[in-house]
Amino acid sequence: MTWASWTTTGVFAGAAGVPTDEAGVVRGDLSVHTTWTDGQAILTVQYSGASEWFTITGSPVRCATERESRDLHQEVVEAVRAGDVAAVLRRGHRVTT
To answer: CB within 8 A of 91, min separation 6: which ones?
Structure first.
């Protein structure tokens, strides 16, 4: 089994926040984590310094390669900062390598 993971800390989500399955919309200083395994990226978020991770609504996302998953992780981090993470996951992943 092949897998990889990435975590980006200190990502600020403003008023739009990040929709999650477990906690609704979370806002503030967050960490974004992506785990890639079995051809899909599992995206989660947590409040910085907390221990509990929440699944970002729309996750998991199909990603055929580790590179696609890494690119998706970065795109989600940027979307959290811009306040539009839901749009990234709604359109599905279409990164090409």
So the answer is: none
CA distance 46 to 33: 8
Instruction: Say whether pTM exceeds 0.85.
Output: yes
How many C-beta atoms surround the C-beta of residue 24 within 10 A? Answer: 11
Q: What pLDDT, in 10s, does the model give residues 77-88? A: 999 999 888 778
Residue 29's CB is within 10 A of a number of other CB atoms, namely 12
Residue 75's Cβ-count burial label (10 Å; 0-12, 13-18, 19+) is middle
- DSSP of 14-45, one letter per residue? EEEEEEETTTEEEEEEEEEEEEEETTEEEEEE
Token pair in block for residue 58: 């729309």
